[in-house]
Amino acid sequence: MDNDSRIERVLVTGITGFVGSHLADYILEGFPEVKILGLVRWRAPKENIRHILDKITLCHGDLVDLPSLKSTLVEHRPDIIFHLAAQSYVDFSFKAPVATLEANIIGTCNLLEAIKELKFSSGYDPIIHICSSSEVYGQVKEDEVPIKEDNPFRPASPYAVSKVAEDMLGFQYWLSWKIKTIRTRMFTHTGPRRGEVFAESTFAKQIAAIEAGLMPPIIKVGNLESIRTFLDVRDAVKAYWILVNRCLPGEVYNVGGAETMTIGEMLNRLVKLSTVKNIAIEVDPGRLRPSDVTLQIPCIDKFVKATGWQPEIKFEKTLEDTLNYWRSYFGTEVE
To answer: Of 36, 54, 201, 206, which is least surrounded by CB within 10 A?
Structure first.
């Protein structure tokens, strides 16, 4: 199916976050006639969307507060819901598993319950993108890469467990009540505005701070041996838009990039972009996880066949833009 011309309103949960803000940018640029609604908590920081606040409508609510979700949906009745909001930091999920499970599982269930109630009371029947994660696959075996959608789940963190449940809730609400969910399992994606707790961004921030003379030329790191396939966030949000316009409810798709390397190789490429040439690398035990996922290479054939989408932005560009984002943060832009 192709719904581009029929979409009037979209709701983005997590619009103030990394992916949500980029998705809003993409829709505003390519489809300015579409009204963008963003579900936000009153205390949510607005830095990522400050440049578009006059072009979007913020709806105050909380995924763990069912009445606020019902109120937003009744008032605005969005055609498409991009459910991106989550506690998405794997390391934090080990320290706060209950908060992670509540936000990601209960929050998703509340959203789907609100939609189900409105569907059967008033005929409201939107398309809902459920944003799962490649973390659901956990530590795969070498003969299981590239990872396909039917690979077993072996979640290796409370975050991953929460995403398994979110993923399966999306499927169950389609199976039981024909709530029009489409699920994605996004692999590693990055770019400007990425949270500083994630590897590519924390390395870039440290490099920018070193260049600004704010810290010694030593980058603190965790496990550098993990293998990842990287995708630019701007390619990711384009994939999400194509997904809700061309893919079938009830389906699940891996989405990921085309450039595979270890975290250490990624770091080396970032360091080469620095104006400082004597940067050392130091392992910080505090950055090592109790259990880690070290082999994440996706098979995206199903999604490519369904949509024709392909990643377009080269990883060198992604790294440059991420580093320049942090340089701007420290006021040290490079000509």
So the answer is: 54
